[in-house]
Amino acid sequence: PPATAAAAVAAPGGMASLTPQMLANASEQDQKNMIGERLYPLIQQSEPALAGKITGMLLEMDQSELLHLLESPDALRSKVEEAVAVLDAHQKK
Question: Could you say which DSSP state residue 8 is in?
Fold first, then answer.
């Protein structure tokens, strides 16, 4: 049988890289979802208890910055540490 478009969808855990074309064809909300789906597992590795909250915080950033975080583990680690510090400070109030 001919291949279907669904065959191109990566299985969870083996997500395809985001391409500029994928983002260009998506609405702004879908773009945030696509980026968030890729950020969450990366954040979960270092901050499993706060991964959802931190991902939400980071998704407030500009899209170009988010794409940089996906490409740069050091930049992502720095932003995650910043978010944890903000959450810690907020909880101490």
Answer: G
Residues of the chain with pLDDT under 70: 1-15
Is the distance from CB of 59 to CB of 36 less than 8 angstroms?
yes
Task: Determine the residue type at 3.
Answer: A
Q: What is the pLDDT of residue 93?
A: 74
Given this model, what pLDDT does residue 14 score? 58
CA-based nearest residue to 63, from 6, 93, 24: 24
Give the pLDDT confidence score for residue 4 in this predicted structure.
36
User: Do residues 20 and 32 touch, judged by C-beta distance below 8 A?
Assistant: no
Q: Are 7 and 18 in contact (CB under 8 A)?
A: no
Cβ–Cβ < 8 Å for 26, 34: yes
